[in-house]
Design goal:
This protein has 525 residues and is an alpha+beta fold. The protein is 54% helix and 18% strand. A hairpin with a 6-residue loop joins β7 and β8.
């Protein structure tokens, strides 16, 4: 590629691509700034809302405080009293009075005498146990003890009372198990418990789940959760506020970063899609421009070579014809020599006619002015006639023409097919050494519904790197300075055009040093 032409194209490429690269870099920086701004805005909004949401929870938790009395387990022994004798008797009146006496105290075993009296009454006459609500208050509120569970399970019938008692027992067992005193927040089984154990009373507040529903207040990308202050803070937490009930719980607001960044990401995708489209369009345009300029340069070079080749091809035979004609006109040539001159003039005239015909036909095909006359034709006879025409040229070079022609009939432009075959045979003769054989075969491929003319030679073959260009117009293989064969570089290009006009193709199979085979493959219909 000439240096003076390639450098401007490179600068043009740089001038187009560089601004797009700069824009892409600015888009990346801008997108990062937008993402940082979106995250900062979300954090500020969460920090504003966290204290207000914590205050709402403080109010709700303050309204849900429950108090339950405690009792010793195991019981602490009490002192003896005449009242114990009532428990050993069956006087229902005395037992009822003892059950209703708030000062009945504890038995020597440490059990509430009122509860023992209620159990004795129930054993003697269940119908006289009394009002269930009063009994419930006695064993669960006024005099709770290790006997309360038995009364609740065996005497009381309310499922609500039983559930509440089991809940309170769970709280008492938890306090005893952990030895809790004072103010404490716990998280157990997905629940948060606030326990205050003082003066024989347990005050507790329960929040059933760590996640707090603030859907009407929080944006879609945020989620509020309760957590113990002592637990680690996750990376997605952007704001927190302490709960005033107790001292160990806080409200934490986490953020779904993907939702916060979603609008910016969508904008980023559109920007980069447009940039990618611009880059792709620019790249395609530059590639097309580069290819067009390169092709134009190649065509100009080939045309220059073509003009030089045609000038040479025309000059040599014209000069020969002129010299021999002048000699004949002067009458200074012997009869035998004159006969040879006439033969040479006829040969050179035929070569000029073929060359001019190829050039004119090639121009007509290129300009779309070529008229194809498709008529039924005996291809074997056409090939045989062509071989007779080419026989003198082959004999002159000491080359034998061999043929194997099968009967084939097809609708073709007979003149064009003969012209293609003449070019293939002429090309084979040019590149074949003296004493070699050029073989022409005609066959029908029934499987693919085509007919094939193959022209094979025993020449030097075509290098692999030149096979792809051998059918290009004006192209001639090898070094121009070392060419010893005649030609203008349009014969094989014309063959290709004729094959394509018939809906077929031309193929080359060549092995350097072992000759070449050119096949003209045309559909039967």
């Amino acid at each position: 590629m000439p240096r003076s032409t390639s450098f401007p194209l490179h600068w043009l490429t740089l001038a187009v691509i560089l601004p797009l690269v700069v824009i892409a870099g600015l888009a990346v920086v801008g997108t990062r700034s937008q993402l940082q701004a979106a995250r900062a805005e979300a954090r500020e909004a969460a920090e504003r809302q966290a204290p207000a949401l914590a205050a709402v929870l403080d109010h709700d938790l303050g309204q849900s405080i429950n108090e339950i009395p405690t009792y010793p387990d195991p019981p602490r022994p009490g002192s003896g009293s005449p009242k114990d004798d009532i428990l050993d008797g069956s006087d229902l009146t005395a037992l009822e009075a003892l059950r209703n006496d708030p000062n009945a105290g504890l038995s020597p075993a440490g059990l509430p005498r009122r509860t023992l009296a209620a159990l004795v009454i129930h054993r003697l006459d269940p119908s006289l146990t009394g009002n269930e609500t009063a009994l419930e208050n006695l064993v669960t509120v006024d005099e709770p003890s290790v006997l309360s569970s038995r009364v609740v399970d065996t005497i009381l019938t309310s499922e609500i009372v039983k559930h509440r008692w089991r809940k309170e027992e769970e709280i008492r067992d938890l306090v005893r198990e952990l030895g809790l005193h004072g103010d404490t927040w716990l998280q157990r089984d997905g629940r948060f418990l606030h326990l205050v154990h003082r003066d024989g009373v347990i005050a507790y507040t329960e929040f059933p789940d760590a996640q707090v529903d603030f859907d009407q207040t929080l944006p879609s990308w945020a989620e509020a959760r309760l957590a113990l202050v002592s637990t680690a803070v996750a990376s997605d937490i952007i704001a927190s506020s302490r709960i005033r009930v107790g001292s160990g719980l806080e409200l934490r607001i986490s953020a779904d970063t993907s939702q916060i960044e979603a609008p910016v990401r969508r904008q980023q995708r559109w920007i980069f899609a447009m940039l990618a489209t611009s880059v792709a369009t620019a790249a395609i345009a530059l590639a097309v421009l580069h290819r067009t300029l390169r092709r134009e340069r190649q065509l100009n070079d080939l045309k220059s070579q073509f003009v030089a080749s045609v000038s040479h091809e025309l000059r040599a035979p014209v000069a020969s014809i002129r010299l021999m004609a002048d000699a004949l006109e002067d009458g200074k040539v012997e009869p035998e020599t004159a006969s040879e001159f006439h033969r040479l003039i006829a040969r050179e005239g035929a070569r000029l006619s073929t060359l001019v015909g190829n050039v004119l036909d090639h121009a007509r095909i290129e300009q779309g002015r070529k008229i194809w006359r498709m008529e039924p034709c005996d291809l074997a006879a056409l090939a045989s006639d062509t071989l007779q025409v080419m026989e003198p040229l082959a004999r002159e070079k000491g080359i034998r023409l061999a043929s194997g022609l099968s009967p084939v009939e097809a609708a073709v432009d007979a003149g064009a097919i003969q012209q293609a075959l003449v070019n293939l045979i002429d090309n084979a003769i040019k590149f074949s050494p003296d004493g070699s054989t050029v073989t022409i075969t005609l066959s029908e491929d029934e499987e693919h519904r085509t007919w094939v003319i193959a022209v094979s030679d025993e020449g030097s073959g075509v290098p692999k790197e030149e096979e792809a260009r051998i059918f290009e117009r004006f192209y001639r293989p090898g070094d121009e300075l070392r060419r010893e064969t005649q030609g203008a570089g349009i014969g094989l290009s014309l063959v290709k055009s004729i094959a394509e006009a018939h809906g077929g193709k031309v193929e080359l199979t060549s092995t350097p040093g072992n000759g070449s085979v050119f096949k003209l493959i045309i559909p039967l219909t």
